[in-house]
């Protein structure tokens, strides 16, 4: 009998939570032949990532996964053998009661946010006894062997390599989005939260000796883009300022977003899902980390930079760190960007090497499945 898995996702204010859980659910069903239900409280957000989904359907099947609307009034249903509460979301009380009444215990996992902080290894896999006698286990994605790894489909890097080697496929894909970069242009993507430093960065790109074609998917950074331009751009519209060409892209499916990352020479990303996908793209990247109270997110940023910079020369590492700090700490992005350009070839090589190094470790879905097998 195949094990049944329930994944619970609460959409907060962005697409990171549903992005991660949707990728995970698909991979568990596709590569591990598991029976997976994904419970989502906001199907409209889910439909942005899965355009063929019906945001009104209480129950539907998409790409091998049963997708259920997580309603306020919880319906009576059987519990699963493995239950994942994503990112600290609270499971329905009736479901937790049903878990406590099972004749054979279920594995209850709390899938945590991604972090490179030192304490993560010590907390990964630790149980948390609950008042009703159940145990919830903390499961941490991460970048080291003593964590749960990163989401990565088995064929992902092979698909990327084939796409990279097929110039006609890349050209056709970009053309389908209305993108026709000049041959000599550096192609870049920008997916970020609001950022007061955007204008300084755009000024540096506009004044650069090399042309840049910047792709900006629909998102929260558009307000800052429009403020710098002095006008609003609709999806598909293109504007040029000096050496910089700006183009707004529509919100695309996850698979198409991967292809955008693969097409670009540099990717600015945000949150968790796009952050991980940019690493698998093997290109230099810039991470806009989700802001937390009292700047607690800076510790997570510094923890990642500490491990990611390893292998770079001191000068290249300092330039990379300066860029990431500028973007996340409201410092001069123009100066930081010019510093990074001095080390561009080394940063390209390093991004590829980092990707290959992370790919030597088990992916998150495989680690979850193996954890369950060891548990039973």
UniProtKB/TrEMBL annotation:
Taxonomy, superkingdom: Bacteria
Keywords: Elongation factor, Glycosyltransferase, Protein biosynthesis, Transferase
Pfam families: EarP
Catalytic reaction equation(s): dTDP-beta-L-rhamnose + L-arginyl-[protein] = N(omega)-(alpha-L-rhamnosyl)-L-arginyl-[protein] + dTDP + H(+)
Coiled coil: none
Gene Ontology terms, MF aspect: translation elongation factor activity
The keyword Protein biosynthesis belongs to this UniProt entry's keyword annotation: yes
InterPro entries: EarP (IPR016633)
NCBIfam families, alphabetized: efp_Arg_rhamno
Protein family (similarity comment): Belongs to the glycosyltransferase 104 family.
Function: Protein-arginine rhamnosyltransferase that catalyzes the transfer of a single rhamnose to elongation factor P (EF-P) on 'Lys-32', a modification required for EF-P-dependent rescue of polyproline stalled ribosomes.
Full protein name: Protein-arginine rhamnosyltransferase
Organism expressing this protein natively: Pseudomonas machongensis
Gene name of the encoded protein: earP
């Amino acid at each position: 009998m195949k094990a049944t898995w329930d994944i619970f996702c609460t959409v907060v204010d962005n697409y990171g939570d549903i992005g991660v859980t949707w990728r995970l659910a698909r991979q568990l069903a596709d590569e591990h032949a598991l029976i997976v239900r994904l419970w989502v409280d906001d199907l409209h957000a889910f439909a942005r990532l899965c355009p063929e989904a019906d945001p009104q359907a209480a129950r539907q099947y998409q790409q091998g996964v049963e997708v259920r609307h997580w309603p306020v009034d919880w319906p009576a249903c059987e519990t699963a053998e493995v239950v994942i509460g994503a990112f600290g979301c609270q499971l329905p009380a009736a479901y937790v009661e049903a878990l406590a009444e099972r004749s054979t215990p279920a594995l209850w996992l709390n899938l945590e946010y991604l972090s490179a902080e030192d304490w993560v290894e010590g907390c990964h896999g630790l149980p948390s006894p609950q008042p009703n006698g159940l145990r919830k286990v903390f499961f941490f994605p991460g970048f080291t062997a003593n964590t749960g790894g990163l989401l990565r489909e088995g064929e992902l890097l092979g698909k990327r390599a084939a796409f990279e080697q097929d110039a006609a496929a890349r050209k056709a894909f970009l053309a389908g989005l209305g993108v026709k970069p000049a041959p000599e242009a550096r192609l870049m993507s920008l997916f970020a939260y609001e950022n007061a430093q955007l204008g300084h960065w755009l000024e540096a790109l506009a004044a650069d000796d090399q042309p840049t074609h910047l792709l900006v998917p629909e998102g929260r950074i558009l307000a800052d883009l429009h403020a710098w331009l002095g006008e609003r751009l609709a999806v598909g519209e293109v504007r040029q300022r000096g050496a910089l060409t700006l183009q707004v892209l529509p919100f695309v499916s996850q698979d198409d977003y991967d292809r955008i990352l693969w097409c670009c020479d540099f990717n600015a990303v945000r949150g968790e899902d796009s952050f991980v996908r940019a690493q698998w793209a093997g290109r230099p990247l810039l991470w806009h980390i989700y802001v937390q109270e009292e700047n607690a997110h800076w510790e997570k940023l510094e923890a990642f930079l500490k491990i990611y910079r390893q292998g770079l020369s001191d000068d290249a590492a300092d330039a990379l760190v300066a860029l990431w700090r500028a973007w996340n700490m409201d410092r001069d992005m123009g100066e930081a960007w010019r510093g990074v350009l001095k080390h561009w070839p080394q940063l390209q090589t390093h991004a590829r090497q980092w990707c290959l190094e992370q790919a030597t470790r088990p992916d998150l879905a495989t680690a979850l499945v193996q954890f369950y097998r060891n548990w039973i």
